[in-house]
Specification:
With 434 residues, the protein is α+β, with helices and mostly antiparallel strands. The chain folds into three domains: 106 residues, Integrase, DNA-binding domain (Double Stranded RNA Binding Domain), CATH 3.30.160; 117 residues; 190 residues, Orthogonal Bundle (hpI Integrase, Chain A). Helices cover 45% and strands 10% of the residues. The strands form three sheets. The protein has a five-stranded mixed beta sheet, covered by helices on one side. The protein is rod-shaped.
Length: 434
Amino acid sequence: MAKVPFTAGRVSAFNCPPEKKQAFLWDATAPGLGLRTTPAGKPAYVFQSVYQGKDLRLTIGSPAAWTIPHAQAKARELQRLIDEGKDPRDLKREALAASAAKQAEATAKALTVGEVWPLYLANGKPKRKDAWKPGYRADLEAMAAPGGLDKKRGKGVTRPGPLYPLLALPLSDVNEDSLKIWFDSEAVKGKHQATRALMMFRGFLRWCSARPEYRKLTDRDAGRAAAIVERLPSNTRRTDALEAAQVSGWWAGVEQLSNRTASVYLRALLLTGARREELAAMKWADVDFQWRKLTIADKVEDTRTIPLTPHLAQLLATLPRINEFVFASTGKSGRIADTRASHAKALQSASIDGLTIHGLRRSFSLLGEAAGAPAGAIAQVMGHKPSATAEGYRPRSVDALRPFLTLIEVHTLKLAGVQFDPEAEPGRLHVVGS
């Protein structure tokens, strides 16, 4: 194998004969250094030697990138490794693997919350559940919405959701400090909304920390840091409910509302103890006037069936049948959506402060106890799981529940000062006196 000292002229003039697949020119200065070229004219410096009795050849690089002195120095370095008993190929593989790992780490560190959030919505789910409840899923989406859409009510455009600023952060940068800065900023706009957003984001961090591909990037406890927790509002449960003496004023205020649908809806909430969305979604197909039953959506089960009491039956029968929903509206959803404004008017008329819509549910429970209904019957009508109540209960049939719910209705109407004919045909509400 003839060798010649490499010069710029010899390197640039070296060509591969057309009849050969490749040709080599070997350097006389640096042992093992060669120039390989092909008929396509793509030359490259190579290093060739013997390692553990076997030929070894490595590509160094193109003459366009490597000067002759640099290529010679590289050849000598590779030969030294062989002389030390090291395989240059292993070192090259390790270097490439380290470079790939470094690149992967850099890519992972650049992964933003916004890139992972849609995967969380698609694949995440609460404990012991198969999927998100539609309402909670909608809340998650709203919390991270960019805003800028025309408001459904009023003028202007919607604001970004509380979680939206976090979407631009790399997941690896979500820590106690960055979350505190975010929370302090959002708390200025509304502390309770910011707190709810934080609780949702904690679920996101838990999900990320449970997945191998995100675990090393996730600080699961970032949202539980003392600097953030001490800023959270009190977690005291609401206890607002109607007092017995307030029922009459509340009922009169609600009855006088100009919005008939909202008026009946609010009274139905008090007479059934149902959650607001459960009644709002009720359809006429769910109302059985013949057998006096209501089938409503349930937070725990898909649906639950409760008795339709006499006065409530009369109230429902007076509502116009605009569409499939009992509490219909002309809005996009076709059903009643938000009665807080109407309720506020009734409260103002009755001089009652601080009673929420959910407070009507608590009021039903208290009125039921005062009427003498069993706790289990009250809990079943309200849609509580037996295990969620202190004493538990054995589920009753609709007919077994009927006398207890009627008892609660009679007691409530007595406090409200309303007398009615329970035998009157539904649809012909007949107030005897008040």
